[in-house]
Structures are given as structure tokens and as C-alpha cells.
Amino acid sequence: MSTESQVKHWHVTYNNIHNHIRKITPKIAQDFNPDLLVAIGTHSLLVFFLRGFFPARVMRTFLREITSNKTLQIQAIGLSLYEPVAGVTEDKIGEQVIRTQWLGAEAGKMLLGKRILIVDEVDDTRKTLRYALTELQKDVETELLNHPEIDRDALRASTKFGTFVVHNKNKPKLAELPEGTLYYSGEEVADVWLDYPWESINIEEHDRLAALDVQSAAA
Ligand code: 5GP
């Protein structure tokens, strides 16, 4: 039996994702009111996978609507935990997170004093989110060294991190988020393999399979 047939798949459509983001954004705007979005992507074998990019762009549309036309910047970071496995559509869990793209030399300056929402498509083991948060916090600490010591506590306190994932898998996590990090998910899901629309070659077939998934879950 192949690895593929052992894992239950669930096909997610663009509309599902859009609607989950539409529902959660007012809460995020009210509780956290981000002023910078950092989307996580993956750079692997010359291809850049969207992951958090599409959700971040959709969230910006809704945030703009709620916060009277405030246009948010979306920055991108590239992280990889899963290495593609030839012949199967699931990915095996990698041992560690690999940084493939970052914010550049001005990272700390860009982050300091902001409310930063990190956006990814799915929280599985939580290793990726933890890595992203701890590394971005290190950039903030490095930038603080350029400021007088007397100002540092206030600047640190004014820099806040939140995270948003479209899907959170209900399973034991292998990593924890730093204390005080706000966490939002669009939908809580079982520990299945989610097939995202941007990974699909044939979107009509993908949507057909998504409708079948919904039908079989309701049966
Ligand atoms: P974590 O670090 O939480 O284990 O995993 C985060 C990353 O693993 C996700 O951003 C995604 O790239 C990949 N991943 C984990 N589970 C799934 C899944 O069910 N479907 C897809 N397409 N990617 C997944």
C-alpha cells in the first residue's frame, strides 16, 4: 500500500479559504489590529509555494474594508519543514525548519513598534510558526541594540506578534508559541492531509473532489 493511500485527504477550495478569512478577520481587527502582515511561503526546488500568501492577500482585503482603507504591507518569508517525497502527494515531516527567504538587513527596523500578524495556511506540528516567531523576535532584539537602553522596554512592549492560520489540525503539537502570542485559526480540522487549490493542476477536478469530500463526510 502506498503512503498516499494511508493518509486521508481533504480538498480545500479557494472559496472555503476566502470565507474562513472573511469570518475571522473582524475579530483579528478588533483584538489585534495588525499593521504588518508577514506571509510564510516555501521555496523548494526552484518553485515558490504560496502557502500563507493567498490567505494574507485575502485578509488584507477584509482588513482594508474594516479599518477604512488602511492598506497593509505584506512581507514574505520562506520556510521549509517538509521535504517533497517523489511519487506521493503528502510530504514527510522534516526534522527542522529551514530558512529559505528572510526580510533582509532591515528586518528589525521593519518590525520594531509594529503589531505583526504572521500568516500561514496550516498549523500542523507548530514547528514552523514557532521558528518564524522566535526568529522575528531575535531580529527585534538586534534592532533594539541600536536604541538607548532607557527606551528599550517600551519599544519591546510596543512590538506585538500574532499568528493566523487558515487551518489548525487538532493534534498534539511538537512546539509551543512564545508566551503572549495571539493565535487565530479560520477552521479547526482533524489530522488529515489538506490538499490546497494552489497545489492543484486541474482546479475543476480539485473542486469536484472537494464537493465529494463534503458529501462523504455528511453521509
Ligand atoms: P508545521 O510546522 O506546523 O508542522 O507545518 C507547517 C507547514 O507544513 C505548512 O505550512 C505546510 O507547508 C506543511 N503542511 C503541513 N500539513 C499540511 C497539509 O495537510 N497539507 C499541505 N498541503 N501542507 C501541509
From TrEMBL:
<keyword id="KW-0328">Glycosyltransferase</keyword>
<protein>
    <recommendedName>
        <fullName>PRTase-like protein</fullName>
    </recommendedName>
</protein>
<feature type="transmembrane region" description="Helical">
    <location>
        <begin position="36"/>
        <end position="54"/>
    </location>
</feature>
<keyword id="KW-1133">Transmembrane helix</keyword>
<dbReference type="GO" id="GO:0005737">
    <property type="term" value="C:cytoplasm"/>
</dbReference>
<dbReference type="GO" id="GO:0004422">
    <property type="term" value="F:hypoxanthine phosphoribosyltransferase activity"/>
</dbReference>
<keyword id="KW-0812">Transmembrane</keyword>
<keyword id="KW-0808">Transferase</keyword>
<dbReference type="GO" id="GO:0032265">
    <property type="term" value="P:XMP salvage"/>
</dbReference>
<dbReference type="GO" id="GO:0032264">
    <property type="term" value="P:IMP salvage"/>
</dbReference>
<keyword id="KW-0472">Membrane</keyword>
<dbReference type="InterPro" id="IPR029057">
    <property type="entry name" value="PRTase-like"/>
</dbReference>
<dbReference type="GO" id="GO:0046100">
    <property type="term" value="P:hypoxanthine metabolic process"/>
</dbReference>
<dbReference type="GO" id="GO:0032263">
    <property type="term" value="P:GMP salvage"/>
</dbReference>
<dbReference type="InterPro" id="IPR000836">
    <property type="entry name" value="PRTase_dom"/>
</dbReference>
